Amino acid sequence: MSNAAEDIKKQYERRYQQALHRQSKSGYYEQFVDQEREHKTRELLAHYFTSFENVHFLEVGAGQGGNLPFFNHLGIPWANLNANELLPERILALETYFPNCKCLPGNVFDLTLSAQFDIIYQSTVFTSILNTNDRIQLAKKMWQWLKPNGIILWYDFAYNNPNNPDVRKVNRTELESLFPLAKNKHIKKLTLAPPIGRRVGRLYPFLNWPILQTHLIGVFQKA
To answer: Residue 12 sits in which domain range?
Structure first.
């Protein structure tokens, strides 16, 4: 396993343990975050697709597949949904709960794929890759796997967490540099800062101002 993949594996394990510790304190936070992200995703994808029945999709670092039902509900057939995952326990969950999608297990850096996807999605994967060159190489691979006019769909945080050295931000400048050949792009700020969002509960929508948002959602289209 490459150093990048081994680092990601260790970081995900620590992040998982931290998430378990926070779970009882999060209240409505995850619900609001998911609803907001899904709404904005629909809005962004409407610029590029009028129908999803022939769309081929790949999620890099798909975890246990929690995002897959959303994309299926958009209209992407299960047979067209592809999910890559590194960790064995998450691969097992993917294969168990989503048997109709195609699981691509293992280190994403080792995958050999053709330009076959209309959408390639990553959510909080790049911030677990601390090495800049590894980020560049993964972005290049994802770009190569896109069909002409296909898109990278991005969701990740743009500010460092001083209490978590296992992750590193991807700000707007770096994000744009990862996909320099994009013919079209949309980038928006999203998600109330987690330390605030987890404390305010139902007040999340009223405090979710751009100045307090910590994540970026974006689309980059291939020529």
So the answer is: 3-221
